[in-house]
Amino acid sequence: MYVHFVRCLQAKIVLDTLVCMFSQYCKEAYTVESAEVEYPSGEKHVYPTLAYRKEAIDVDLVNRNVGINQSADQLATLLTKMCLSSEASGGRLTVEVPPTRHDILHACDVVEDVAIAYGYNNIQKQIPPIGVIAVQNPLNKLSDQVRHQVAEAGFTEALTFSLCSQADIGSKMRQDISQLPVVHISNPKTLEFQVARTSLVPGLLKTVAANRKMPLPLRLFEVSDVVLKDRLADTGARNERRLAAVSYSKTSGFEVIHGLLDRLMQLLEVPSDPASGYCLRPADDPSYFPGRCADVLAYGEPIGRLGVLHPDVITKFELNLPCSALEVNLEPFL
Prior knowledge:
By secondary structure, this protein is of the alpha+beta class. It has three domains: about 1-45, no CATH class; about 55-120, Phenylalanyl-tRNA Synthetase, Chain B, domain 1 (2-Layer Sandwich), CATH 3.30.56.10; about 140-334, BirA Bifunctional Protein, domain 2 (2-Layer Sandwich), CATH 3.30.930. It is built from nine helices and 14 strands. The strands form four sheets. A seven-stranded mixed sheet has the order 6-9-10-14-13-12-11. A three-stranded antiparallel sheet has the order 3-5-4. The radius of gyration is 29 Å and the shape is elongated.
């Protein structure tokens, strides 16, 4: 229903714009004929609507945001250059938004038009009245440090798409997609981008498949976000920063992946101690070979998983050699 509403709104905007632009060439200039449209639900609407609306803005707000000092009448004159008629009344402006200006969604868009009409080069530069010190986002700083160290460990960084097909995180990984916290795209344009990824491993496997003719071993990693459905989040979904790595060679390379985990924990100053640090716990996961999979626990909480991928997973990604994978959540270490 939401997608249908958005498409109708887009069509209405296009129709209003075309009608307004071509109406000046009509036999009787600036006149249009309306048409009644009946929807399958029985509703009837007359198009084009060519609706006008008004925005009331404060003169002091405009001057403060743009950095100028103009009266209400002067601002009204500036807006005429942007095809916006306005009336000054006291310290406020009443701006009439025509159907040709669908780009004006809020009063701040009118303020932007004032700045354009006044001329950006004519606005006097000022030093901000407050001083702040920029600080890098802690999560991004940690991510950059992890990228550098994993690359020094002999892995090559990859950057894969945030969207993928349902099969990539579902059937190819031997997972039931209905049991995963997946965010689905309501109107995907292609089968390759149907959902937001819940794991970084499928993207790395597709990258390995595209480069399988390269010399072995292929050791790839990625530090990026996955998207998980979360009803407690304002948007219904949340991002989670993760590190994923795969080792593809003639042998499984489990010791390589395990060694990378140990190195990561060493850098994060997490001791190898089940009680006060990190440890491995046997796990059953259909994506991994039975008996070759483990959960990674840090301070008693599961933060990820590593193991040897199941042969069915490998073949579904058009690979034919053993492969081990690691995926951990970095956010608990902030």
